[in-house]
Amino acid sequence: MKVGVPKEIKILEYRVGMVPSGVKELVDEGHEVFVETNAGMGIGMTDQDYIDAGASILSTPKEVFDISELIIKVKEPQLDECKMLKSGQVLFTYLHLAADPEQAAALVKSGVTAIAYETVTADNGSLPLLTPMSAVAGRLSIQAGAYALQKANGGRGVLLGGVPGVKPGQVLIIGGGVSGAHSAEMAIGLGAQVTILDLSADRLKELSNRFGDKVITRVSSKELINELVVESDLVIGAVLVAGAAAPKLVTKEQVEQMRSGSVMVDISIDQGGCFETSKPTTHAEPTYVVDDVVHYCVTNMPGAVPRTSTFALTNETLPFIKSLANSGWRSALKNDEHLKNGLNVHEGSINFEAVANELGYPYNSADKII
After folding, report:
1. Which end of the chain is more exposed for a tag (fewer CB within 10 A), N or C?
2. 244 to each of 183, 270, 357, how far by Cα in Å?
3. 96 an active-site residue?
């Protein structure tokens, strides 16, 4: 199969869909891999590294899209990329369609078969291709929040860990999943006072066993969020509903009541964000202020540490890429229920129910297609 790896074009996105070692594995199994020139420069991988692994280097994204049967990316295709996609091609990348009706419409129009990293599942119900980036984003959220809390950056002037004789900063984490747990780990490491909210009592027990008395765990409710948000220096939004838009858990009115210079980091922004005042930002301009509260809502947070992120992601994606290349997408999905759950778009139809419901498309089950 002809596999293409274009260079990412989202603003300040330096990750790449495959590293040279993955290219070599595909080439060794008889596939052709085409990589856009300089695609790996952001993680320190040169064209020569890819050539040594057996790839062919192409000069433009159009060349990559034109020749490829399977296209491997990291971020959702930008609209210019969607125009280069066509029926008969398979796209394997993050999509986050529920929060992006323009992209969804463009993919539907293209006729491409699009498989989303974020809805591929595992035996234990987890999302294995989302997990590594959730971990990175969770850890980065505390770094970003701590930086934004500095007075020169618009924050309250609070050091999360405090110092002897001065109380630490208060961190509220809404959502105790992968990103929330990694946020907690980083915040604890800095010495902050950490509270985690989640709807699942079982998950809260797991977090209590993991962190002990270093965190406060509480069952989430509207009343509790209202109470704790206004007391917090840093609020982390880390709520995920697989494939669907994130619920809005912090209202505009609650933001108005927060202390001047408080900081909110919305990890859920890829899925539309879980704060009513959230709007997507980029690494070029990561923050903005609403009612004197600093908001950090970068949609590709892991792109800030592309080398770590790329290796973490491609460790997980490569087995699925090999399956798609070796068997073809239809057989690969038939043979793997979890990969089948990744199918979001095929030949003009929406095949993931939460996305179809959110965007108002008819839902066409993947089972009917394969």
Report:
1. C
2. 22, 10, 9
3. yes
